[in-house]
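Let's practice the habit of predicting before peeking. Look at the sequence and jot down your guess about where helices and strands might fall. Then scroll down.
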Amino acid sequence: MCPGGASPPESAYIDAMDEPRIAPRHRTLKAGTIEFGGGGIDCTVRNISETGAALEVVTPLFIPDRFTLFVPSQQLKRPCHIVWRKEKRIGIAFD
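Done guessing? Here is the structure:
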């Protein structure tokens, strides 16, 4: 409830992919690679912050819980782990 007993505006309700974050994420559209076990799977980085990112993949199946994200255009290579999986998207936190 908001002060005075009023209900919060509908925009105050957010789904699991938009929960409050430690660091703000910035929308992007960058090619990346999910690297693990000597191989890699292509992905698209849809948003990114200092603490994590949302990735779009062909399928979230067969992607391990922990891997290294490589984004050549940002010279980024960081170990991470999956926080959530939803259809063709996965949310990751950097280790």
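How did you do? The two ends are 36 Å apart (CA to CA).
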